[in-house]
Amino acid sequence: MSHASFVHLRVHTAYSLSEGAIHVKDLVKQCVGHKMPAVAMTDTDNMFAALEFSSYATDAGIQPIIGVTLHVQNPYKDLQARGKKAAKPDQLVLLAQSDAGYRNLMKIVSKAHLESDVQIGVQYPFSDFEGLTDDVICLTGGVSGPVGALLLEGKADEAEKCLLDLHKLFGDRLYVEIQRHGMPAEEQTEEDFLDLAYTHNLPIVATNQPFFVGPDMYEPHDALLCMAESTYVAVQDRRRLNPDYRFKTAEEMINLFKDIPEAIENTINISKRCSYKVDKIAPLLPNFTRGMDVSEADMLREESEKGLRERLDIKAQDEDLTPGKEQEWEKEYWDRLDYELGIINQMGFPGYFLIVADFIQWAKDHDIPVGPGRGSGAGSVVAWVLKITDLDPLRFSLLFERFLNPERVSMPDFDVDFCQDKRERVI
Predict the structure, then answer these.
(1) CA 250, CA 210: separation in Å to the nearest integer?
(2) DSSP one-letter code for 73
(3) What residues form DSSP beta bridges with 96?
(4) What pLDDT, on the 0 to 100 scale, is given for residue 119?
(5) What is the mean pLDDT of residues 289-303?
(6) Is residue 341 within 8 Å of residue 300, measured between CB atoms?
(7) Where are the alpha helices (DSSP H) in 180-295?
(8) CA-to-CA distance for 378 and 394, rounded, in angstroms?
(9) Is the separation of the CB atoms in 139 and 205 below 8 Å?
């Protein structure tokens, strides 16, 4: 089956928080409907949707391209500020070519969030790209990028230096990005972008920047931007887009850039360079007993039996019963404990129970209120004796199988309620 000759390389999904309005499923449906062979997800400063996007796209026969629109510090704008209020950060678009590229993107985005001033937001320095650009494709960001920002300020020499800095970092994986959303700034800088690209023999690429699917979503999306900035639609001096920031068809984009067809062709070339998707993996849990002379299963049994003994002694005292494993009333509890431990070990989750019990006990030791148990986890005797919950499952005839069941293998999930004023200490 023939495919479209254009690929979107700068799409914002709903994971561009308070900014994008395209659900991942809808993005994939648009690509299928328009016969686009690939698409790039480039949410602002995050890759939250990477796994979800990869799954939906590959299931539909679309090549997912994992990327990010990253706010960066423009070193040339910073030099001009000289003690004044820090300049607004510009944007670069980064795309992962391979697993190595994706891992570099994860390092870049993590570093950006961990080391940026939380009061200002993400601002990633150019210098921090060193050593993290292998298998990462960079688009210059159009007028919202560092080169475009300098061109808009009339600083042609600085813009050229900035572009050459990016070329040193990304080599032949750097593309000069051209956009045509009908914005004056784009028309003002396009000729300069083309001159720089041709002067330095750099490839150009055409992008559209969809924040919503169709023109009927323009006004709702405009309202979303107002909510994000705590302002009103009627306010003039605020962030505004236009209906061209929609998911355009390949035909629209090809016609829009018919004077520079190479910019369209390079969208396909870039998609061919990217061959990575995020695969689902089993949950990765730390080994709770690493370095100890005991297995997780043995430790879980030891702690569970000790905890059950404590619980039953209290029950015997409260209800004037005779304690002891030989007593008939205790047999139901010990049988249920053996049954649950068998299922837990069979499914490979003893470490999960030990980890949850550990942080809940830490909270109790530090006077942080913890709920008595909620959801299907309250049906587990093991959880009760480890003091993860405080409800006797047998007293209330609660079923363990609603929590863990070999016939339906899934990760256990305790619903734990911590005091809202102190939960950050536990985290």
Answers:
(1) 13
(2) -
(3) 136
(4) 84
(5) 96
(6) yes
(7) 184-199, 218-229, 250-256, 261-273
(8) 10
(9) yes
Per-residue model confidence (pLDDT) at position 96: 98
Does the pLDDT value for residue 178 go beyond 70?
yes
**Cα dihedral 235/240/244/247 (nearest 10):** -110
For the whole model, what pTM was predicted? 0.81
Alpha carbon distance 124, 175 (integer Å): 19
DSSP string over 303-349: HHHHHHHHHHHHHHHHHT---STTSHHHHHHHHHHHHHHHHHHHHT-
Residue 85 has pLDDT above 50, yes or no: no
Task: Give 188-245 pLDDT, tens digit per residue.
Answer: 999 999 999 999 999 999 999 999 999 999 999 999 999 998 999 999 889 989 999 9
Which own/partner pairs from 356-360 qualify as long-range (CB within 8 Å, at least 24 positions apart)? Answer: 356/383, 356/386, 356/388, 356/414, 356/416, 357/303, 357/386, 357/387, 357/388, 358/288, 359/426, 360/387, 360/388, 360/416
With tokens 């023999």, the residue in question is 201
Question: Which pLDDT does position 184 carry in this prediction?
Answer: 95
Backbone torsion region of residue 54, taken as left when φ is above 0, otherwise alpha when ψ lies between -120 and 50, otherwise beta? alpha
How far apart, in Å, are the Cα atoms of 304 and each of 127, 336, 339? 53, 12, 12
Rounded to an integer, the average pLDDT of 79-105 is 79
Question: For residue 213, which amino acid is it?
Answer: V
Q: What is d(CA 356, CA 354) in angstroms, rounded to the nearest whole number? A: 6
**What DSSP designation does 371 have?**
-
